[in-house]
Amino acid sequence: MTLRLSDGHVVRGGATLLHEANITVTPGQFVAICGPNGAGKSTALSLLDGSAQPTDGLVTLDGEPIAKVQRKALAQRRAVVPQRHQLSFPFLVHEVVAMGRAPHEGRTSPAENDAICQQAMEWLGVTPYAERNYLTLSGGERQRVMIARALAQVWEAPAEGHRYLLLDEPTAALDLKHQIALMKLLARLANEGWAVLAVLHDLALVRRWCTDVVLMKKGTTVDSGSPENLLNPENVAEIFDLDEPYQF
Amino acid sequence: MTSPTSPLARRAAIGRSAVFACGLLGLFFALMGVLVGPLNVGLVDIGKIIIGSDDVSQVKSGVVLNIRLPRMLLGFFVGASLGVSGATMQGFFRNPLADPALIGVSSGGALAAVAVIVLGGAALSGFTGLLGAFAMPIAAFVGSLTIVTAIYRVSMQDGRVIVATMLLAGVAANSLAVSGIGYLTFLADDTQLRDLTFWTLGSLGGATWARALPAIMLMIVGVIGLLRLARPLNSLLFGEGDAAALGTNVEATKAQAAFFTALSVGAATAVCGVISFVGLVVPHLVRLVTGPDHRFVLPGSALLGGALVLGADLIARMAVTPAELPLGVVTAALGAPFFFWLLLRDKQRGGFG
Question: Which residue ranges form the domains of chain B, and what is each CATH number?
């Protein structure tokens, strides 16, 4: 009942990017991965979303090695929102969101897919742009459209396993209002039984909304637990190499 | 069914209508291709030829069946191949400037085909002996595939296509092919030279059933192979990482896109030389109406590509009668200004992403 990275090691071109990394996310949890730049957060996320293989160690999805899960079955229960988006063709916003339903092609009816996309757009507040060209949107608007696409992708609880939503710095392009709205939404999804895992930089947001936090430094996971316990002034100073305790 | 008011259904209805319109245009020019020429052939004559009536002159039916029909079919499939390949390349490279001729895929095919013409009797005699009429299109396919693969390898970095590198690698590939063709031309004898002249400019002239049929068969396989890739190509537009996360088999899609593009472009180039800009212009025109969804862009580009090449061939045949302009001259004259317009438009938008 979990997405788990056990003792992950990644070595690329002779450099160790990740070693002895352990991360677990369970349905009901909203887990944040925090740590300084270059700590291996994105590398760990790429192992967990199945896009990269660890040099050593294991990633399991609901008990099964993720490399063994069928491509389509994986896409039906795990959605990924990357840090940067590459789309440079003028799809309309509702077409972008509808792309999230691609793994369900033939499984759900067009009307069902349509209703799901409408709802996902509603939740991210992008319904007013539904008919606009994605390329004319601002960075923050694009980000919310891409998150709506990911929600549409893992909208319904699968027959087997759970819904996993993985996001790499999802709040980076958002203004304060939308950062809060997104954190609220992700916390609510976790509460409803989704498993949410996000790389996040804003510790105040993490403390307020996340159920769990994994602290990373120099290519490994150093600690994990509840944000209230872990994100104290001394610990944060230690993780981020600050000269003095961090005042929230 | 989706309600007709849903935005997706509306967009799909527009897409289907656009593909249908492209089909009508293709049909119109196909008919013109058979009707128009120095010898006056009317619709009634075509009807009579189709039902096998004796009430039509031998000359007319001979001209239609043995000269205009193979040329028309060849033109249509060459245009369809170039249109659908251009649309695929643009999706594959996630860039609207990718065009089989521009990035050297066509000239790679041309070089290989020229090699067969010049060396077919000597160094490559085993190859031509084995494949017969298929030797040229298959050699061109190999040439095109080599270039697609090389350009892709060179221009990819960390899962992203570097646009400038892609275009410059295309310039390099084109130069290399031109130099190779130049060298082979130097080696060629007089008969071979006549065969070679049309390579540089592209032409549908001299299309006979014997030359056209093998290429048409390969082009049909290539075009159908590409039309099947609409959905995975859509997801590839989001980047390879996103496509994989959406459950697309990225490597298989790329391999098939490269294979079938090289097959159709190679076969097209083998019979009528390098015809530029069709693969660039046609998908853009279709996309202006349908949006970037490959389920409409691919079939629309195939049909409009066929229509455009047949239309350009009409101009090529009629402009300087009784002589004939090379087809590539006409498509370049139409396409190059369009390319400039694209560059200007995207400059105003802040350049290519």
Answer: 22-348 (1.10.3470.10)
**Element at A188 (helix H, strand E):** helix A176-191
Contacting residues of A for B7, CB less than 8 Å apart: 92, 94, 130-131
H or E stretch including B160? strand B160-161
A123: left (phi over 0), alpha (psi -120 to 50) or beta: alpha
pTM given for the model: 0.90
Tokens of B207: 């299309």
- Please give the residue of chain A at the shortest CA–CA distance from B11: A95
Q: Is B172 helix (H, G, I), strand (E, B) or coil?
A: helix
Degrees, nearest 5: CA angle A214-A215-A221: 90
The whole-angstrom separation of Cα B207 and Cα B193 is: 18
Residues of B in contact with A136 (CB under 8 A): none
For residue B5, what pLDDT is reported? 67
Give this complex's ipTM.
0.91
Q: Give dist(CA B317, CA A193) in Å, integer.
A: 69
What separation in angstroms does the CA of A91 have from each of A95, A174, B138? 6, 21, 37
Partner B contacted by A115 (CB < 8 A): no
Closest residue, chain B, to A89 (C-alpha): B292
A31 lies in some domain: yes
Distance in angstroms (rounded) separating the CA atoms of residues B97 and B316 = 26
Number of domains making up chain A? 1
Two tokens, residue B117: 């013409």
B313-327 burial, b at 16+ Cβ within 10 Å, e below that, comes to bbbbbeeeeeeebbb
Q: Residue B67: CB partners within 8 Å, gap ≥ 6? A: none
Strand partners, B12: none
B124 burial type by CB count under 10 A (0-12 exposed, 13-18 middle, 19+ buried): middle
* Residues in contact with A17: Cβ distance below 8 Å, sequence separation at least 6, in sequence order: A10, A11, A40, A43, A219
Nearest to A238 by CA among A214, A219, A220, A222: A222
Decide if B8 and A51 are in contact by the 8 Å CB cutoff. Answer: no
CATH number at residue A115: 3.40.50.300
Beta bridge partners of A23: A5
| DSSP H or E segment with residue B107 | helix B105-119
Q: Could you count the other beta carbons within 10 Å of the beta carbon of residue A241?
A: 8
Q: What is the pLDDT of residue B1?
A: 43
Is A248 domain-assigned? no
- How far is residue A242 from each of residues A35, A237, B119, measured CA to CA in Å? 12, 4, 72
The model's pLDDT over B225-273, given as tens digits with 9 standing for 90+, comes to 999 999 999 999 999 899 999 999 998 999 999 999 999 999 999 888 8
The residues, ordered by sequence, that sit 6+ positions from B182 with a Cβ below 8 Å of its Cβ are: none
Range of the domain at A47: 3-239
Which residue matches tokens 């291709």?
A: B33
For B99, which DSSP code? -
Q: Does A103 touch chain B (CB under 8 A)?
A: yes
B247 and A103 within 8 Å at the Cβ level: the answer is yes
pLDDT at B2: 44
Q: Is residue A245 part of a domain?
A: no
Instruction: Give me the pLDDT at residue B9, please.
Output: 84
The pair of structure tokens assigned to B194 is 């006549």
Which helix (DSSP H) or strand (DSSP E) does residue B88 occupy? helix B69-92
* Distance (Å) of CA A200 to CA A116, A179, A212, A216: 27, 11, 12, 12
